[in-house]
Amino acid sequence: MLDDRTTTRTDLDTLKVRVWTPKSNRYGWSSYLGDAVAGPDVSPYAAAARREDLTGLPPAWIGVGTLDLFHDEDVEYARRLSDSGVPCDLDVVPGAFHGFDFVFPKAEVSREFWRRQARALEGAL
């Protein structure tokens, strides 16, 4: 959840996503931001994608599946970080939905996803 403005994207309503749906996304953001959701006054501290200048942010690891509701905003944010000179590892898992690694924790793809996440954290610390 990086961009509250995704709540206004009706094209996401047609996606066949699991776990975190467009309805869940709207509920989550409106619970967090109330009536301000998708409006002009949302702080970049509340919605990271709202920040215009990303220079100077710490390195990031972003992991997302191609069937995740957050795929587009995660890929875009990773691009913006990289364009701003912020080291960013983007880990895109083909065919994975939001939370796949918790739903199928014993699957090799989930285990590898967690290993890559742990390596990124190890490298940062």
TrEMBL record:
Gene3D superfamilies: alpha/beta hydrolase. One of its GO terms (molecular function) is hydrolase activity. Residues 13-100 form the Alpha/beta hydrolase fold-3 domain. Pfam families: Abhydrolase_3. The lineage of its organism: Bacteria, Bacillati, Actinomycetota, Actinomycetes, Kitasatosporales. This is Alpha/beta hydrolase. InterPro entries: AB_hydrolase_3, AB_hydrolase_fold, GDXG_lipolytic_enzyme. Keywords: Hydrolase.
